[in-house]
From TrEMBL:
Protein known as: Thiamine-binding periplasmic protein
Gene Ontology BP, a term: thiamine transport
Chief location of this protein within or outside the cell: periplasm
One MF term in the entry's GO annotations: thiamine pyrophosphate binding
Cross-referenced NCBIfam families: sfuA, thiB
Provenance organism: Escherichia coli
Length: 184
């Protein structure tokens, strides 16, 4: 996207950005990040998978919902995660996962809604999803499966267009997005 000429340099200093692994891009500004995880209900699933490989390869008949990588960033994240874990064997891993797949949704909201209705044992979401239920609903029965391979990171970014009629205002907004006032 940087090479298209559609975006201008952000004007935000790299040290203003706090992203795991660091950030070195003078066009796109990270304003949010999260780790993907498979979320489950602790009251319904007592022994969740301990790794992506266990989820895919286990004989357990877990019912799983995830998102389409063509229409959803979590779905794209899962595609990249599977590729990272399985490498050249990713196509075979997808075939194994397909046997446990209830449905593949267009987006996160649809997938998570189906999970909350009890349509699956696990849903692709974020490690922070259980915190929402605790803070907003006072429910502590949801958890993110902690995978031994780690969890794939998603970074959301913003940029200003090169054709902006108010480039200074756009740059100020990007700077605001990394400030404590915006982040907290």
């Amino acid at each position: 996207a940087s090479k298209t000429g559609l975006f201008a340099k952000s004007g935000v200093a790299a040290d203003a950005v706090n992203v795991p692994g660091g950030w070195n891009n003078d066009t796109f500004v990270p304003f949010d990040y999260g780790y993907f995880a498979f979320v489950y209900d602790k009251n319904k699933l007592k022994n969740p998978p301990q790794s992506l490989k266990e989820l895919v390869e286990s004989d357990q008949n877990w019912r799983v919902i995830y998102q389409d990588p063509r229409t959803s960033t979590p779905g794209l994240g899962l595609l990249l995660w599977m590729q990272k874990v399985y490498g050249d064997n990713a196509p075979q891993a997808w075939q194994k996962l397909a046997k446990k797949t209830v449905t593949v949704t267009k987006g996160w909201s649809e997938a998570y809604g189906l999970f909350l209705k009890g349509e699956s044992d696990l849903v692709l979401s974020y490690t922070t999803s259980p915190a929402y239920h605790i803070l907003e609903e006072k429910k502590d029965n949801y958890a993110a499966a902690n995978f031994s391979e780690g969890h794939y990171l998603q970074v959301e970014v913003a940029a200003r267009t090169a054709a902006s009629k108010q480039p200074e205002l756009a740059q100020k907004f990007l700077q605001f997005m990394v400030s404590p006032a915006f982040q907290n």
